[in-house]
């Protein structure tokens, strides 16, 4: 099971709304315990593309985030980004750029009145699996 800290989820929503109409992005810091993954903290990053259709994370910020996670005894368990005007599912570009089948890919859609957040795995063949998670 995947557990997502509710306060951290709310931070993703706040970031996505603040950066609208651009996509927001960031890392998911957490702890793996067997089959369970607990997402403890989000690490917002700058979308250097400033686009509502794709994102690129700032490389220096990525490096700094990984250092911060390690100092907090967390691992980079995944990343997230927003879809300002499309559903919460990986686009063809998202699948193409999903290089690591061991991490989580979170997507927050702002398409509807209420935000929709889903978490996915993308395997090496680019097959997508929607995962269940629980806010804690």
UniProtKB/TrEMBL annotation:
Occurrences of domain MPN (ranges): 2-136
CDD domains on file: MPN_like
Keyword Ubl conjugation: no
Keywords on record: Hydrolase, Metal-binding, Metalloprotease, Protease, Proteasome, Zinc
Family annotation (InterPro entries): JAB_dom_prok, JAMM/MPN+_dom, MPN, VirAsm_ModProt
GO annotations of cellular component type: proteasome complex
Entry protein name: Proteasome lid subunit RPN8/RPN11
């Amino acid at each position: 099971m995947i557990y997502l800290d509710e306060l951290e989820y709310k931070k993703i929503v706040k970031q996505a709304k603040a950066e609208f109409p651009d996509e927001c992005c960031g890392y998911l810091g957490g702890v793996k315990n067997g089959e369970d993954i607990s997402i403890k903290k989000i690490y917002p990053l700058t979308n250097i593309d400033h686009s509502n259709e794709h994102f690129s994370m700032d490389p220096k910020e990525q490096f700094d985030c990984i250092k911060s996670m390690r100092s907090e005894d967390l691992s980079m368990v995944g990343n997230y980004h927003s879809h300002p005007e499309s559903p919460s599912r990986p686009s063809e570009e998202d699948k193409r750029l999903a290089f690591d089948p061991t991490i989580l890919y979170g997507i927050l859609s702002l398409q509807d009145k209420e935000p929709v957040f889903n978490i996915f795995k993308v395997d090496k063949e680019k097959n997508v699996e929607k995962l269940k998670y629980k806010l804690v």
